[in-house]
Predict the structure.
Amino acid sequence: MTYRRIAVVGAGIGGLTAAVGLARRGARCVVFERHRGIPEDGTGIQISPNAAAGLYGLGLEAAFATAVRPAGREIRRWRDDTVLGRTDLTRHEVPYFTMRRAALVRALLDAVRREQGPDAVRFGRRCIGVRDEGDHVLVGFEDGTVTTADLVIGADGLRSAVGGAFRPDPPRYSGHVACRAVLPMEAARGLAEPDRVVVWLGPDRHCVAYPIDGGRYLNLVVTTPADQPTAASTVVSAASLLGEYRGWHPAVRGLIGLARQLGRWPLYDRAPAPAPWRGRVALIGDAAHPMLPFLAQGAAQAIEDAVALAGCLHRPDGPGRFAAERLPRVRRVAEASHAGLRAYHLPDGTEQRRRDRAMTAARPEALDWLYGSPVRV
Ligand SMILES: Cc1cc2nc3c(=O)[nH]c(=O)nc-3n(C[C@H](O)[C@H](O)[C@H](O)COP(=O)(O)OP(=O)(O)OC[C@H]3O[C@@H](n4cnc5c(N)ncnc54)[C@H](O)[C@@H]3O)c2cc1C
């Protein structure tokens, strides 16, 4: 199948990666983004080897210029900082990266402009819906304009307007919010590790810290239960979070105290779209399968989707092939991420001790299914 006019809706990590992937397959596209520019989200992101491999495959190694390659990840106990489990993050062919989210998006945007043309990304264009007419698809925008395309790729995130056409069920609120802040590493010395990801698990809550920006800053994520979802990106004071983290180890409390104010993100997920590419409309990333961030895989799976979709583009069985390649994978990752909602937050007791013993005994290859090929020696 040849698609001459492809519209990508959403200039997030998924949509921009798709635009580069399409260029590699000789396909032109235009990306429509609702915001007037790339939002300056100052927080960090973990890009695991399975996703980094996709970006390497597109020749985007330079995107990681300021990223950190953490040596490992430690799971620790909330009250006494005991290390419960360690994962070696260097055992894969492609590195595990932690970095500033905006640095990745900027590198992707530059690549899209290079590969698809300087005007390929159109800002200030909010899509309000699509209609598949069989031999073409109409894309409507809030400003009243309509674009015609041969294929629309919905990469417009959790509340996808493109996906609205075939995903009437609303996203599922998890009952938890994530509070995020970036701290100077210098200030966090003695509380955090400059060379690894640390996750503290405790009753109803967990906390994650990892280095970004070549190790000069620390990204902090502090989760709390909340009956009602707050609006995305509202702030919470460290003082109020410290009230929720009473009794936690001084390292965790110290990091929260350093943050002063943290941005809040309510956490949602939703069962993966059963047919992510139907007719002339395909969904990728959070538009197709928003997942809880407990395995740090939402953006990683968006990247995997984008690469797979580009690979299926010219195949006559493209939609079926894309679903067959992606659905079993995203279902498994989404389920494993959802399981963290309970497993990470167990109250102290028998079940928590069983979980901790399993973490201590986990084999080095336990996450190879997720991260991909280990380094061959
Ligand atoms: C606290 C937290 C921590 C996380 N940490 C990680 C991590 O470490 N690693 C990881 O892999 N994932 C992580 N994730 C998940 C990750 O952020 C998302 O899964 C990822 O951003 C999804 O990318 P996307 O491109 O599909 O969607 P988005 O990033 O949501 O991008 C969608 C884009 O579409 C635009 N858009 C939306 N609606 C419209 C419209 N109607 N018209 C035009 N444009 C539109 C948006 O403005 C946006 O630019 C985390 C999530 C949270 C909440």
In short: The chain has a mean pLDDT of 95. The pocket of flavin-adenine dinucleotide is lined by residues 9-15, 32-35, 45-46, 126-127, 155-157, 161, 178, 180, 221, 265, 267, 285-287, 293, 296-300, 302 (CB under 6 Å).
